[in-house]
Design brief:
By secondary structure, the chain is of the alpha/beta class. The protein folds into 2 domains: about 80 residues, Ribosomal Protein L15, Chain: K, domain 2; about 240 residues, Four Helix Bundle (Hemerythrin (Met), subunit A), CATH 1.20.120. The chain has 10 helices and 13 strands. The protein has a 5-stranded mixed β-sheet. Helix 4 runs antiparallel to helix 5 and helix 8 packs across helix 9. The two termini are about 25 Å apart.
């Protein structure tokens, strides 16, 4: 359990939440783990099977505290709240900002590119530059190209089309050297360029699987603060597409999904036998053990804590989408001058 931004996150399965006077009390196996006065709470987010007493539900509704219920993997299930006073205004602000989203999109794109560059730099620190490559090491060269793109964006020039173009250029640079980051001994496990629907090699299969999990988390995060997950800023609106969830996940992809993919493959936790090649050439994590390995590693990665650069406080990686959604909602309401993107340190 952790309290951040006036929100209590309950991540312990089997926890029980109850009302005691003017306080919320969280218990695990009958032992009190947290006590928070109602006047210090804005919302409660519960992951998985968590018991919430009827008395607490009534007290939270009366005090304007929303209760958000998510399943074990973070998919949105329900939002419990009293009379709604602010969501309609927040969504109107979101819709208005989507007509001129340049500043918000700049934050998403710069954080994504900076975090991609950090993934490449981590590889260089861990394994050193390559040898015998014409013109120097390709990964080092990619880092420099990403740095040039970041400097161009930091100058604040250009509008939405330029930002989208920069994001696409950076993705091409980043994935052009991604295979050099894969150190699996299995010759079948190679990255042959980004392929999505369907993934055509084991690396893409793991990336796509983790991106799907991350999309669920970001959609839940948007819904948990009252944002419309279908109306985004960087991604264009399309029927059935959670555009805002895709926006929120961009800055998190390199750290939460790409790094985890590399760890699973390079540490030989996933081998070629764990993948299935289907008709048409699509590749999927085929074995039950392989899927379990990915899901277990995903949950473990989300429990890791990192210093949030804006909060200046440590937070589990799994809560970052929810924190970023809160920052975005506060910016749209006018409480923050700008959206503070998340940079991996």
């Amino acid at each position: 359990m952790k309290k951040l931004l006036n929100t209590l996150y309950v991540t312990t399965e089997g926890a029980a939440l109850r009302k005691d006077g003017e306080n919320l009390v969280a218990e695990v196996d009958g032992e009190e783990r947290a006590r928070v006065p109602f006047h210090m709470l804005g919302s409660v987010v519960a992951f998985g099977p968590v018991l919430v007493s009827p008395a607490l539900i009534g007290a939270c509704a009366a005090n304007g505290i929303s209760i958000v219920l998510l399943d074990r993997v973070g998919r949105f299930q329900a939002r419990i709240e009293g009379p709604v006073a602010g969501n309609v205004l927040l969504r109107r602000a979101q819709y208005a900002a989507s007509e001129a989203p340049d500043d918000i999109v700049r934050g998403f794109v710069m954080a994504k590119i900076a975090n991609q560059r950090s993934v490449l730099q981590r590889h260089l620190r861990d394994y050193g530059p390559g040898e015998g490559e014409e013109g120097g090491d390709a990964v080092s060269a990619a880092c420099e190209r990403l740095a040039r793109i970041l400097r161009r964006l930091a100058a604040g020039l250009g509008g939405l089309d330029l930002l989208r173009g920069a994001e696409g250029e950076a993705a091409q640079v980043y994935f052009s050297v991604f295979d050099r980051l894969v150190r699996s001994p299995d010759p079948e496990i190679r990255f042959r360029g980004r392929s999505r629907r369907p993934p055509l090699d084991p690396v893409n299969a793991v990336l796509s699987f983790l991106y799907t999990l991350l999309t669920h988390d970001c959609r839940s995060a948007a819904e948990s603060v009252g944002l419309d997950p279908a109306v985004g800023f960087l991604h264009r609106d399309r029927p059935g597409r959670p555009s805002l969830a895709l926006d929120l996940m961009e800055e998190l992809r390199p750290v939460l999904a790409d790094r985890l993919t590399l760890s699973l493959l390079n540490r030989r936790q996933l081998r070629a036998r764990d993948f299935e090649v289907r008709d048409g050439g699509s590749v999927l994590p085929g074995s039950q053990d392989g899927r379990r390995t990915v899901l277990t590693a995903w949950q473990e990665r989300k429990r890791e804590e990192r210093l949030h650069p804006f909060l200046e406080e440590k937070a589990p990686l799994g809560l970052v989408p929810y924190l970023q959604a809160q920052f975005l909602s506060r910016h749209l309401r006018g409480d923050l001058d700008a959206y503070p993107p998340w940079f991996w340190k």
